[in-house]
Write a structure and sequence with these properties.
The chain is of the alpha+beta class. It is 17% helix and 28% strand.
Amino acid sequence: MKKINHHLCFLKTGKLSLNIFTILFISFLFIPRVKAQAPQPGVPESPEKIHFRQLFTQGNLMMSENFIDSALQTFLVLYPLDTSDANVCYFIGQLYMLTEAHKAQALPYLRTAARRVNDKYLPDDPYEKQAPPNAYYYLARAQHLNYQFDTAIDNFIKFKNLLELTDTRRKDIDYWITCCNNAKGFVESPTDCKVVNLGDSINSRYPDYSPVITADEQEIMFTSRRPNALDSTKDINGRYYEDIWMSYAKPNMQGWTTAENLGSPLNTPGNEATISLSPDGQELILYREGEQGNGNIYASKLRGYQWSYTQFIDSANTGIVNGSSWNPSACLSPDRKTLFFSSNRPGGLGGTDLYEVHIGDDGKWGDPVNMGHTINTEYDEDAPFMHPDDSTFFFSSKGHNTMGGFDVFMARENPDGQWGHLKNMGYPINTPDDDIYFKVSADGRRAYYTSTRPGGYGERDNYEVFFKDPLPVQPVAVLVGYIITPDNGGRLPNDITVVSSGVNGSYSTTASVNPRTGKFLQVLRPNQNYNISINTQGHKVFNQKFFLPSDSSYHNLSRAFFRTKIILGDTTNVFVPKGTMLASSNTGKVAGVKMTGRMLLNNDPVEPLSNMPMLLLDDKGHVLKTGLTNSDGFFSFDSLTPDNNYIVKADLKDSKLKHLKQLYLLNSNGTIVRNYDENEKKAYLYHNLPTDLTSLPELAIAHPVAVAETANNTADETPTVSSANNPDFTRYFGYNTADVSANDAGFSALIDKIASKAAAGSVHISIQGSASKVPTTLFSSSNKSLASSRSKTTKDVILDALKAKQVDISKVNVQLESAVKGPNYEHDAKDESKYQKFQYVKVYVR
């Protein structure tokens, strides 16, 4: 077969290339036309041929006008009339290749087309029964998408051999051959992960894409082209307009709530799409289509439950980012000092490139800088995402060593500020089709993104990736806090900020508190001591030090975040809502007496009620003061009138503490003096209390509880397993606790590792329990007993989990160790950051 002419065009790879619809239309216009094979003179056409000719002409016209779905349905009507018609099969194959979700269905039709190729092909002739040489190209593309890489390469080469040596399309063929070879390697050595569709609460039969998620993974927003009750209009191509939708995580991460359209002002009658979401979910960066077909980047902020009207992301320096170019994606760095965005502005390396803009302390924006050859290629790059660790960068590209279409890539920033070696995230994350909008969780164990792959609900779906081993991101943890008023129902001030600063001055971050929900969120670096302060109306109303470890004690269901609830001490002048009656002190008396008590939860084992809100009320039920129990369950209220009686209210919001029979109140001497006498909505009340709780008689109980210890116990601190080895599981504890759960972060992975080793032979487990030198008030009044209890409890939970997996326990050898560690106690138990790092259990598997 002779070399084919240049006017036979085919699909290009870059967005700057001509639109595929335009390419096809131009190819038809420039192919030399030969008069169609008209019926013989005097011989009338049969009704069947007239019908066929009319449908063919109609389908051809609809295709040239880019009405792909209508054209496809028309040619599918023609196909049963003659299943051997290579030309009809060629049209059907092309049209399937132009869909988002049904490309794979092109393959059988293109196989038929490629069997009957003719270089004298007549594209507009309804009686043409053969296909053009381009059929080899489209067949190869379909085989590539169906993971038939070797046969795809054969057909790409067959098509390439038909081209002149000077034909520029040879470069495109080489590109796709390289994609096939890349794909073969990735499929043969897959990434150890699981890709899961996010389900019909998120996805639909319409295109759903570009998920963005809060750092605690409790809220997800995404873009959808589905109809909704507010607007069901369609664009010129018959598609619903893009809108922004939102869903919330169900309790215990058991799926997502049914997504809801966020409505105005985020959504308009035009196209809006999610781009990036701040870690606390209070600032959204979105894409909005311009009147001239360009697209620009906007921002909106959450004010309580209402999103603000959008404004240009670069409103402080208009024109730095937005303008006449197309800017489809962006993200801010965690410190909000750099904006990464994609653009097809002039001067790039090709297609859409990634750029960065630095924002000064004065709020002024610098000039956009192309991220260079390490990141950008002559093809498209898009969808930047900077991980909360501020050094690991993810994006999608049609260049580098892609499998085909957009692939997800990862890059790490070197100490010199340059980007290191790129890593393709591999199969099954990446596929021969588009994989894009990749967002990674704080702990590197999960990711959320959009993929075009078989088995989805619609054209494009959103997916979650579960990695067997976390990605090599720098460790971070997410502090999720809730600030509440003393009566847990009043309105908070609008200007509350939370500042967490590293004690060594190396790191500081500020978060705004949502005034409607009281929620705030911060991304912190672990293994540091922090000082957290809360400020409002020009006053610092809360200040506390704490130590943030890097592992499981602060994880929730294997997610790197922890929660806390704060009632800000005696701050009724700030946090009690207007209209609430406050009790006033008695005139002429000095209110200088202090009430000190302690809360004990009579569970098995007994444990102090730590970090729980405590309220002091007068005899009419008006809130006087608020406080919080410390890690030992102690609380105090200052400046009280000595002759008055009070009500103490323990405001328990933990659902596990819903129906308590005993919640003991102790005095400062450790004597149990009361059980609660009233409960309401998980709040427990103690009435008619004097300021001096030691004046109350001891409460008679069936089983006495040990509540005091003064000795500093020590033990040999030398472990059997070298401390240089990384533990396979770690759990940090508060004071006087030894609980370990199969739901703790990393526990599932620990059990899987033990089970794997036991299947291959014997396995040795070393469990090290540690307690600090802060005197314990439980566990037989011995810190050594506390450390030992942590080891034994961990052993029991491990063995129970192994039995549940039907592991042969006879192959498991467990060694227990316990020690009392850390600095000597200096009556400063409130400084938890000093002692908490020595309160743990660690498990080593060999």
